[in-house]
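Database export, one record per block. Field names are fixed; values are copied verbatim from the stored entry.
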Amino acid sequence: MKCPGCGNETASTVMLCLECGWRAPDLDEALEARPSPPERSVKAALGTLLTAVGMIVLMVGFVALVALEGAGSVAWVVLACGLVLTLVGLERRRRGLREPPTRAPRVATAQTLGALDLATHRGIAVIGRTLTLQGATYRVETLPAAASGPTTFLLVNERTAIGLHRVRFFPDDEAGAPEAGAWSVAVPGGRAVLTLHQSPFEADAPWTDLISQAARARGDGDLARGEALIRRVIAMHPTHVLALNHLAGTLVMQARDAEALPIAMEVVEFEPNHPGFAINLVRLLAGTSPDAALKLYRSSCSWFPPDEASDELGVRLMLQLGEVHDALAILEARPSPSLTALQQAALAMRAAHERAAPLIEEACRRLEGKVTDGVLDLFQRALQANPQNPYTLVNVGLALARAGRHAEAAHALLQAMSRVSTPLRRLCIVNAAFALADDGNAKDAAALLDHGFDNFNEPTNSPGVLLADLPSRAIYVFPPDGSAEALPGDALERLERIADALQSTTPASVRTLMECYRRAALVTEAN
């Protein structure tokens, strides 16, 4: 590494530079990398000024000496003063440009908040630097000597003040041996190899004993007491991710998944680089939003090291969502005896998919030719051949609605709703509501529209802008997310029918939808 003081190359583990005297900081102190640029520039400028004055005095003395033909003692004194000033100025300038660093108490300066770059920060020079991974910012700290070697550091999450990761840094010109359970990420000038550290290094914290008591209570089956104890910890430390994760797990054990879900989401928001936290959230989402759970699983796979338990969860989600080919790709890439049953199920589903494919192709061919006769029968036969395909179930629901079998259509669409991607989930909700409205059930249709959307304008976050993927009245859908829809006026007519039936009890969300579609219909007519 380069000495932060003089820039000379030195061993990466050296604690003292023999050239300039720079010494590594103690654990309770931080490096002040070197005097600030303004401070150094003043010292160098003063040296330059003294040098210039000395040169002028030298010239005056030399002229005087020539004029007096070497006989004037005053001229010799002037010459001597000029030489001294010149030498002092040169030395001051040299020191100003190359001055060793000083030690200072740790403060929140650029040293603490500065970004890590292994091109300039190597060895212990990374201490106090920060790096950002998946949106979370960490400060690099030292590890207790007994915990690891001298080149392994602790990453302290700046939002939670807890360190759950060990890290080793390797510049571009160095190679590191692979480590079980570790994963590598690129950092400026090199890469960081992360592993989980089980202890948050807070043995003296006031909540440590409470966490231990809560864990024992949970282990003994006293979940109410365990919950009460861990909530006391969170009251003292609201961003304690280990305590929050413990609370979410305790709530799940009490079958309170709806309460656990937002807590698990908060844990991942605080600490997105912990595989266990991410998989816990995937498990919770799997029960309510398989599509969101699968997206989180896929992003985790691209970031964290392979894990058999998480792979099993991901494969089950893929099979639930009808993505059999992706499931088989994972099973074939990482074979395991514990996944044999899932592989057999995936192979059976692929065979069912192949049996249903000709029926779906024929239905699509007829729809492209504007022929709807027999389409419902083809989709129903395809669903019978492959009942796990949610897209076929959506198409059956839409075909039932066009055949006037509205109650059956609503049932099929609501059944498919939890097994498709988010845009198609909206499609299912809206078309199920339209089917209920066409069946004369305006109250349930309004309730479905009122509670089916968290945010009408989620894709654009622009109030009043009609969702591009919010259908008016969809025709048919095909994997993975294609759809065709009628004019916005078709949807507006049904919404107005719901409002007329309910009058003053029409939910505000339905009125908002009506306004969106009314503007969309005007835009369509204008075009």
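Remark 1: The longest helix spans residues 37-67.
Remark 2: Residues 203 and 209 are 9 Å apart (CA to CA).
End of record.
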